[in-house]
Amino acid sequence: MLEAPSRRSARFITFEGGEGVGKSTQVRRLLNNLGRQSIDAVRTREPGGTPKAEAIRSFILQGRSEAWGAGSEAVLFAAARLDHVHELIAPNLDNGVWVISDRFCDSTRAYQGLTGGVDDRLIDALETLALDGHTPDLTIILDMDPEAAFRRVEQRAIEDGLQATGDRFEKEELDWHQRLRQNFLDIARANPDRCKVISAEQSEEALEAAIWSLVSDRFPELQGRAAE
Length: 228
Hints:
By secondary structure, this protein is α/β, with parallel strands linked by helices. It has a single domain (about 10-215), classed as P-loop containing nucleotide triphosphate hydrolases (Rossmann fold, 3-Layer(aba) Sandwich), CATH 3.40.50.300. It is built from 8 helices and 5 strands. The longest helix has 25 residues, at about 70-95. The protein is globular. Keywords: ATP-binding, Kinase, Nucleotide biosynthesis, Nucleotide-binding, Transferase.
């Protein structure tokens, strides 16, 4: 009888970074490259990933929780993350399926913790509760100057015939986004084994190749394989 896949047979990878750095695109490309190597993987995002978490996401990004303050928002993010971990992340990892997430716990630290001024003790407690031991195996932080990132977003909106409105976080002042960028870099320096910074100021194809090189070097089961 075949044994059930062990937790060690699956990997949990998260993407972090400021607005407009291309996380969603690179999550999709990494998922495609893993599929070419016959690696079962699922794509998800935060806040969100499950129906309950998506409802919290909508509430927050519409600005309806803004008046409550950063501390209350951190609690809401933790509630969404707890459901996300228990209903999607943990079951897939337990079944040997890799999980690739567009944002995770580091975004709470960068946005509500460092930028919003929420006490580290609250962030630590919420993180311990929500993660329940499911720390990412690798966090890829895409780094880019915010001014260049927003020019890229605006250009893509023009090409798609859309108006770049964005959610409330995207509408913050440039200085706010500069501080956010530094927060992510500080998180990477504090967690060098888990977090790796890659410049997003390159073509999507070059960035995809850099990410695949990092991921395939990191995990033995991918070594010797090349993305097609």
